[in-house]
Design goal:
- The chain is mainly beta.
- It is built from 6 helices and 23 strands.
- It has helices at residues 74-79, 124-127, 135-138, 206-212, 262-266, 279-282, and strands spanning 2-5, 25-26, 42-43, 46-53, 56-63, 71-73, 88-92, 95-99, 101-109, 112-122, 131-133, 142-146, 151-155, 167-171, 180-186, 189-195, 203-204, 222-227, 233-246, 249-258, 274-277, 287-291, 296-300.
- The strands form 4 sheets. The protein has a 6-stranded mixed β-barrel with strand order 15-16-21-17-20-19.
- It is globular and about 55 Å long.
Length: 304
């Protein structure tokens, strides 16, 4: 049984505009980076960025575009003597959990500062880092994930940036900050696709499974166990889909873990075919940029 971490905490709705026809991109199973040598910058395919907390740091946080709120490691919160806050109900991939929060007076991300964050405090062993950056800290940022350099760059959204000639831009609307593409499909089935940089594995809901395999025998499945940031687990079935389209980008042989995960209902996507796009899929691109203020997602294709 394969053990895979998933850090989805919440998400919302975004709509894509028509994308131009472009060459197909192909998933490469050799792209995943593992090993302790890269632990300072990358946990498997998920990416880390440096943050400051109340004038101290830097600390290494995972970037999670699918999470509503920022999470801090319990040991780090204690070492910083952060004041306790009220308990909250946390929605994870394996269900709901009531957790305690602490108050971060000022969180520093690049040149940006975010004040008064009520952050759930969870055990680092389940986070895979010292904390997780959620939408409450990312809403006004532009992040560039460079999967070749294994870095995350935080860019000032108020400044113009030079675009790569191979960059494909998808414009979207924003709800609670999360990005959901609606001009997407799995085979011939239209889907809503949530960009979730906190999940290592791309997940599909049961509505998508039922539509794709309606009237025919499903392909062989591989059982996997998904671990939430709270440590709770949920079982899923891993299936390889022949093709997935994101705007005008075509991806071949996409692995999707089908699971009746609570976040789909939270996003209002449990009754329609939908996927959470994990970093296993996103790292098929050379770079992926998320511009939360401008409501744009940019993909740079990897040359073959």
């Amino acid at each position: 049984m394969t053990l895979l971490a998933a850090a989805a905490l919440a998400a919302a709705v975004l709509t894509a505009v028509p994308a131009p026809a472009i060459p197909a991109a192909t998933l490469d199973d050799q792209l995943e980076v593992t090993g302790e040598g890269l632990a300072a910058r990358q946990i498997r395919s998920r990416m880390l960025v440096s943050v400051g907390i109340d004038g101290r740091g830097p600390f290494r946080f995972l970037v999670d575009s699918g999470a509503d709120r920022t999470v801090i490691g319990l040991s780090l919160a204690r070492s910083l003597s952060l004041p306790p806050g009220r308990s909250v109900l946390l929605q994870g991939i394996a269900g709901n959990s009531r957790v305690d929060t602490v108050t971060i007076a000022v969180l520093t991300l690049g040149r940006s500062t975010i004040a008064d964050i009520a952050a759930p405090a969870l055990a680092e062993v389940h986070l895979g880092a010292q904390g997780i950056l959620g939408i409450d800290a990312l809403a006004d940022q532009r992040l560039m994930f460079d999967f070749d350099a294994r870095t995350v760059t935080v860019q000032d959204t108020r400044k113009l940036v030079a675009f790569d000639p191979d960059e494909i831009v998808v414009t979207a609307r924003r709800s609670k900050g999360q990005l959901i593409l609606t001009q997407a499909s799995a085979g011939r089935v239209p889907i809503s696709a949530v960009v979730d940089t906190g999940a290592e594995l791309t997940m599909g809901n049961l509505a998508l499974r039922d539509r794709i395999f309606a009237g025919r025998r499903p392909p062989p499945v591989t059982p996997v166990t998904l671990i939430s940031v709270t440590g709770a687990t949920v079982e899923a079935n891993l299936v390889t889909l022949p093709q997935m389209r994101l705007g005008g980008i075509i991806l071949q042989d996409v692995q999707v873990a089908f699971v009746d995960a609570p976040p789909f209902a939270l996003f209002g996507l449990d009754k329609q075919p939908a996927v959470l796009l994990g970093t296993d899929l996103l790292q098929a691109f050379k770079r992926v940029s998320l511009d939360f203020r401008a409501r744009k997602i940019r993909f740079v294709l990897r040359h073959r």
